[in-house]
Write a structure and sequence with these properties.
Blueprint (H helix, E strand, L loop, with lengths): L1 E6 L3 H12 L4 E7 L2 H10 L4 E5 L5 H11 L4 E5 L5 H10 L3 E3 L5 H12 L7 H19 L6 H10 L3 H11 L4 H8 L3 H15 L4 H14 L10 H4 L2
Parallel strand pairs: 1-2, 1-3, 3-4, 4-5
């Protein structure tokens, strides 16, 4: 029997899923809670095999990380995960076992729970694509064996940026805010935020100021290098 705990701050949602999962012979829902404190108490007192965590709940990612650290044997299913790279990667880093997106069926959720205890990771193709792209990026970086010269390393990081990321980095270096960049490139502010996050990750910096300084310093050193200066018409095209 697979012991399951459901965590969601939407009570009717939590109760409905509890009833559905309880109708599966191999699954037993031993509790459903709607807040983090209650979840921690329940998991501490009655450790389940699987936790189904509603990722739309405030503080859900932190809770997943805490469960993974204190109870590494517990499998965690991330429920209602949006198709967003930041959310997907955050879930993976926190320690989820499987992803069940918002449009998934109840059968998908049941399959994810059963598969989790078998060591399987339920992962829709689109989410798997995001994860594989991240793995490939990290693997490519790991294979590169450049000498510890800071300028050359910066060149490598800059080359990894996509054309759109280079455009946004150029505008960041000009001092534009996310809202101003979205207007300049005619894209959503949320899209700009995602690109900025990816830029910081790829350049291995902690802030947009550091990223902008890296861009400016590199172009001052060698405007004809592999990254090169972006002309204004390229940025705004």
């Amino acid at each position: 029997m697979i012991n399951v705990i459901l965590i969601s701050d939407i009570k009717i949602y939590c109760e409905g899923l509890s009833q559905v999962l309880s109708n599966t012979r191999s699954i037993k829902v031993i509790g459903s809670v709607s807040n983090i404190d209650a979840a921690i108490t329940l998991i501490t007192n009655s450790p389940p095999d699987v936790v189904v965590q509603d990722m739309t709940m405030t503080g859900s990612c932190d809770l997943v990380q805490q469960i993974s650290c204190t109870n590494p044997d517990i499998k965690i299913i991330a429920l209602s995960v949006p198709y967003n790279e930041n959310n997907i990667f955050s879930c993976a880093e926190a320690g989820v076992t499987g992803y069940v997106p918002r449009e998934a069926s109840l059968g998908d959720l049941t399959a994810a729970v059963i598969g989790a205890v078998k060591g399987e990771c339920y992962c829709p193709p689109k989410i798997a694509a995001f994860l594989f792209s991240k793995i490939q990026y990290l693997a490519r970086r790991a294979r590169e064996n450049y000498p510890p010269d800071s300028n050359r390393q910066h060149d490598v990081h800059l080359i990894d940026l996509t054309r759109r990321e280079k455009q946004i980095l150029s505008l960041m270096a000009d001092g534009l805010s996310n809202k101003q960049i979205s207007k300049a490139l005619v894209i959503e502010v949320s899209t700009v935020k995602n690109h900025v996050h990816n830029i910081l990750v790829k350049l291995e910096v902690q802030s947009r100021v550091q990223a902008a300084n890296l861009f400016q310093n590199r172009n001052q050193l060698d405007s004809s290098g592999p990254f090169g200066l972006l002309k204004s018409q390229e940025v705004y095209s």
